Amino acid sequence: MPSRQSEPVHLRRIDPARNMRRFYCLSVQPTLFGGASLIRDRGRIGTRGQSRKRPPEAACDDRDV
Fold first, then answer.
1. Which of 3, 9, 38 minimizes the C-alpha distance to 24?
2. Based on CB atoms within 10 Å of each CB, which residue in 13, 14, 29, 38 is the most buried?
3. CA dist., res. 38 & res. 60, Å (int)
4. Are 25 and 10 in contact (CB under 8 A)?
5. Alpha carbons 24 and 62: distance in angstroms, whole number
């Protein structure tokens, strides 16, 4: 069975009046047990930023998005 790969989503938010230059990257990665995890990277443009992994058993309706 072929695996379906998804491309990451890259977003930018730039507001010169507020000195805001942020990036966001969302991707879906497979887990070892056949599930999928959401990987979120965010930070200021030009920096490495932070990464957070959401496990597959996390509820879809929680407010930590």
1. 9
2. 38
3. 11
4. yes
5. 19
